[in-house]
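Duplicate of #3305? Posting structure anyway:
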C-alpha cells in the first residue's frame, strides 16, 4: 500500500473566498481532523502565480501573506499540515525541467483549464511559455512530494489528469518512479462550483462576485442584501422561484434546519421556507437575513483567528519558512530518486564503480 500523502495548494493572486471554502478548504480541514494521512502539504504557489503576473510581483507577494492568513484562520494547523512557499523549494523547478520532456506542446494546449485561462487573459498569440507549461510544473509540485491524494476544486481536474499522464510517461521511460495521484473533489455539485452572488455560475475574483473569508460583517451583510434572487418576485405576496435563486442555493450549502429553528420564529426547516417562498408571502429580506446570520456563524471565528495572526505577521512567515524547509527536504529525496532512475546521478555512479 502506498502512503497517504496529501498535497494541494493555491495560487496567491487574491484572497480566498467562500467558493474556496466549500470547494476545498473544508475538505482539507476534514482530512486534517481525521488524522487519516501520513503526510500533508499545502503549497502557496507563488511561482505559478508569476506565470501570468511576471510584472506584478508585488501583487503576488501581498497575496502570499493573505492566503497564508486565510489558511490559518480557517483552522489549518501548522502542527498537522506543512504549509510552504513554492519558490522556497527550488528542487521543484529541477523536477519540472525533466518533466517538460514528458509532454508535448499540443497536449498542453488541449488542457481545458489552460484553454479557458488563455481566453480569459486575452493572451492571443503572445502566451508566456511559462504559462502554457504551468501544468507541468504543477505535476512537479505533486509528484515531487510523492503526493497520492490531491484535494482541489473542480476546475483543477484537468491539471491532475495531466499530472497522472506525466507520472505514467516518466515511469514508462525511466522505470517505476511515481505513484499516480488521485484528485479529491467535493461530491456536492454546488460546493464543487459555488455560484457568485450575482448568479454567475462561478464565484471568482475576476468577476467581482465573491464573499471573501476576510470580509467584515458589514461587507458580508451588504453583499447578501445585493444577492440575485428571483427577478419576478417583486412583491412579497408574489409566488417566487427557488431554483436558480442564489440565496436558496447558499442556504442549501451553508444552513441547516437547526439554523432555521434558531433564527426564524415561524419555520423549522429549509423545506418549509422554500414552500412558503414558492407559494408567495415570504420576502427576500427575511431569507437574506437568515443567510447573513448563518454566514456570520461560519465567518466570525475565522475572523477572530485572523485578527490574532494579523498582529504577528512575522510568526506567519516563520510558519511558512519552517514548512518550506521541511518540504524542501522531502523534495530533495524524491528528486534524488528520480535522477537515479534517469541515470543522471553521476556522483553516486562514480562512487559505486570505485
Ligand atoms: N493551480 C492551482 C490553483 O490555481 C494551484 C496549485 C499549484 C496546485 N500547484 C498545485 C493545486 C498542486 C494542487 C496541487 O489554485
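Output from current build:
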Amino acid at each position: 500500500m502506498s502512503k497517504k500523502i496529501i498535497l494541494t495548494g493555491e495560487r496567491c493572486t487574491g484572497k480566498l473566498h467562500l467558493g474556496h471554502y466549500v470547494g476545498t478548504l473544508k475538505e482539507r480541514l476534514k482530512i486534517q481532523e481525521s488524522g487519516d494521512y501520513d503526510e500533508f502539504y499545502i503549497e502557496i504557489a507563488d511561482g505559478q502565480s508569476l506565470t501570468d503576473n511576471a510584472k506584478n510581483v508585488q501583487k503576488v507577494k501581498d497575496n502570499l501573506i493573505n492566503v497564508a492568513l486565510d489558511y490559518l484562520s480557517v483552522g489549518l494547523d501548522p502542527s498537522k499540515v506543512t504549509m510552504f512557499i513554492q519558490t522556497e523549494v527550488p528542487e521543484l523547478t529541477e523536477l519540472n525541467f525533466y518533466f517538460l520532456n514528458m509532454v508535448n506542446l499540443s497536449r498542453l494546449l488541449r488542457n481545458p483549464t489552460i484553454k479557458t485561462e488563455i481566453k480569459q487573459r486575452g493572451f492571443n498569440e503572445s502566451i508566456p511559455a511559462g504559462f502554457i507549461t504551468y501544468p507541468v510544473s504543477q505535476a512537479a509540485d505533486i509528484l515531487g512530494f510523492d503526493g497520492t491524494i490531491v484535494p482541489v476544486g473542480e476546475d483543477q481536474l484537468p491539471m491532475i489528469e495531466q499530472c497522472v499522464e506525466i507520472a505514467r510517461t516518466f515511469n514508462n521511460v525511466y522505470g517505476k518512479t511515481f505513484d499516480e495521484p488521485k484528485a479529491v473533489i467535493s461530491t456536492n455539485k454546488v460546493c464543487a462550483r459555488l455560484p457568485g452572488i450575482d448568479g454567475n455560475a462561478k464565484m471568482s475574483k475576476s468577476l467581482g462576485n465573491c464573499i471573501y473569508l476576510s470580509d467584515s460583517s458589514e461587507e458580508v451583510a451588504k453583499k447578501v442584501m445585493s444577492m440575485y434572487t428571483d427577478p419576478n418576485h417583486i412583491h412579497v405576496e408574489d409566488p417566487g422561484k427557488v431554483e436558480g435563486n442564489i440565496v436558496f442555493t447558499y442556504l442549501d450549502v451553508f444552513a441547516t434546519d437547526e439554523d432555521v429553528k434558531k433564527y426564524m420564529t415561524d419555520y423549522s426547516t429549509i423545506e418549509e421556507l422554500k414552500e412558503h417562498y414558492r407559494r408567495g408571502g415570504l420576502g427576500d429580506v427575511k431569507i437574506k437575513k437568515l443567510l447573513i446570520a448563518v454566514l456570520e456563524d461560519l465567518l466570525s471565528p475565522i475572523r477572530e483567528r485572523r485578527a490574532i495572526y494579523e498582529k504577528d505577521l512575522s510568526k506567519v512567515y516563520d510558519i511558512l519558512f519552517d514548512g518550506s524547509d521541511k518540504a524542501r527536504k522531502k523534495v530533495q529525496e524524491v528528486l534524488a530518486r528520480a535522477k537515479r532512475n534517469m541515470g543522471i546521478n553521476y556522483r553516486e555512479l562514480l562512487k559505486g564503480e570505485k
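Confirmed duplicate; merging threads. The beta strands are 5-11, 39-45, 82-85, 149-151, 182-184. The radius of gyration is 23 Å.
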